[in-house]
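Hi team,

Filling in the usual template for the complex we talked about on Friday. All components are listed, including any nucleic acid strands or ligand strings, so the model treats them as one assembly.

SUBMITTER: L.P.
PURPOSE: interface mapping
COMPONENTS: two
RESIDUES: 810
SEQUENCES:
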Amino acid sequence: MDAVAFLVPIALGLGATFAVLFLVAVRAGQFEDLDDPGERILHDD
Amino acid sequence: MSSAPALSACLHCGAALEGGGPYCCAGCQVASAIIAGAGLERYYAERTAFAPRPAPIAGLASLPTVPLPDGRAEVRLAVSGLRCASCVWLVERVLEATPGVVSARVSYGSGRARIVFEPGTVGVAEVAGRVAALGYPPRAASAAAPDGTDRDLLLRLGVAAFCAANVMLASISLYAGWFDGMEDRFSALFRWTTLLVATPAALWCAQPFWRGAWAGIHARLLPMDLPVALGIGVMYATGVVATVAGQHAYFDSLTMLVFLLLAGRVLEARGRRSAAEAAESLAAALPRVARRVVGQAIEVVPLSALRPGDRIEAGAGEELAADGVVEHGHGHVRMALLTGESEPVSVGPGGRVHAGAVVADGGLRIRVESVGGATLLDRMSEELRQAADRPATTGLPDQIAPWFTGATLVLASGTFFAWSARFGVFDAVGPTVAVLVVACPCALALAQPLAVASGLGAAARRGVLVRSGDALLRLGQVDTVILDKTGTITAGEPVVVSADDAVLRLAAGLERFSAHPVALAIVDAAVSRGIPLPEGVDVVETPGFGIDGLVDGAAVRIRSAGPGGVTVAWAEGSGLLHLVDAVRPDAARTVAALRAAGLAVEMCSGDHPEVALRVAAEVGITAVHAAVDPPGKRDRVASRRAAGATVLFAGDGLNDGLALAAADVGVAMGTGAASTMHVADAVVAERQIGPVLAAVRAGRATREVIRRNLTRSLLYNAAAVAAAAAGLVNPLVAALLMPLSSAMVVWGAAGVERRVAREERRWTR
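RESULT (copied from the run log):
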């Protein structure tokens, strides 16, 4: 059971990493246009 | 008719053809040549819809460009006519193959194009001209970039989701320990973990609610944000104390609540933004230019360079850029957008013309008298902008909020005093906190944004773009509908109403080479009847007079037969084509449905009484006001409102703008004047009037759903508060109760679409 003492911080750290990645993605405008890239892939040379 | 020629279809737009050439008109031929020139023939194999037929466009030279720091320039366009993803691909590739264009990005969803080019190599007129030549009319897009609030909300939502999920995990461990027993050091670890993770949710993610509550207090109001902020504040503050004291806290409820409320806001903002963007694209105006006469030459100048005293020329299809007096030339001008009159007016030397009028035929030389802000058009637009400043209405939840806040505080203090009188102050804290927590109106605050987002979507799917939640809610209260005639009940442009197929075929053979509105109508009629277009040769068009040429090797003459028709004459006979500003096909049905929904329907037109009465009789409207000037329309709307009615006014022209702004809800037709669309609450994006009905239905359904959701969540909250006051609620019970009430509201919001669809089915059956 003592393992949770470091497993919980590790889990939180992992989660926080993804939260930060999400933050970076939003700042980079990844969520501005959700429709076009899907269409575009059909045509790009 | 000649011996059965081979049938084919126009390679570009798909119109049926007789032998002849591969293209139906010069526009399609140019478009196809551009595509072939760029090596993009693949487009024809991959597209899923035929291309639009290109129409001539003037005024591209003065599209606003933005200089970039590296010497390049950028232009933002709103491109219409994008029918499939292949259109986007085509426009991008053709532009990128144009020398001087650095990059081109087109969005299929919003129809926005962003083009970067080298101003030294290529001009903006040429860049935009390529897009126009392909058949996609470009217009200036508003420069406004998407504002930061959407991004900000999304960030907060993402962080709130992270917090809620992790707090939930730790809380489940705590609850498990609660029942099965857990060592103190572990429960302390999990309790401090929940505090750590819940802190950003309460202090940063929930900021919009803190700000809303604070702004409300400042304005001496009690908005919905206040009880929400109160609940979050109490949960967090008691949670910190409980964590230090080694007791259970409400952090799981807190984070879930913040997440759900933010999700509601994000959904509402998205729905509103996409409707507003689409409406704005329709209203985006092409900057006007004029052809100025300088000595013997003619130069194209932007409107800003035009001065009173200048001479300008205008030909068929052009929109006049200034007010002035005709010096020479004869022709007809359509003033429909200004006055609502459907028939073109004949003008000659000495006649007065106004900016915004469109030349139907003929060529005019005009001495400019007033330009820019001094024109009738601009003065009317300015008047509109001032009339359109309307105070925001408060939603139902905001009306309840003060009572709700008051009741919560009374109940909480009642609980506190009752418990402390009986068991002492120390034991009274738990139930009091529980009351404040379960009273937190999560479901109540979610009820309106979710239903509004759902209602905006239901309306948009039916062709009407409602700009704000307020407007949608007002739509639900409308009991009187006043409709303009020209461009609203009717299409606003000539349509062939009766014609013999053989006559139509001959006429279309010549008219396919003309850009006159009548010519476009004739070709459209032939194409829609599936008549293959024959190929006219030696076609000569005489503005204001007619068109001559050879079809099947024989001479054909087309002459105007006064308003309402053209005569077509050939060697063996002659025939008449009737053209009128026809009633929209769905007008009668829509009027009947509006009436069946309990609304009073009136018509208010600037046109002549006899035309107005004929149209009214055709669609089944009995209350008709004809030959009404713009202030008259506004007064009609005002008098109905004074009589207690909630009025919807639908119109398309500048002459409707005042009435539109004076009505409770103004609906503009997407084919009408741009400044009218700017002051409207909703814009119809299709060439139909049915969406007006859809807007009313969506508004009603939204109101109903909000009302039902509010009732349910109030009952729910009342029950939960009673349980909390009795001391039956602890953090676990709260964590189970809260998401349940929110789920109920989310499910209810989806009911807007179901209700609108049910209304439609009931009517069509």
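MY TAKE: The radius of gyration of chain A is 18 Å. DSSP finds two helices and no strands in chain A.

Thanks, L.
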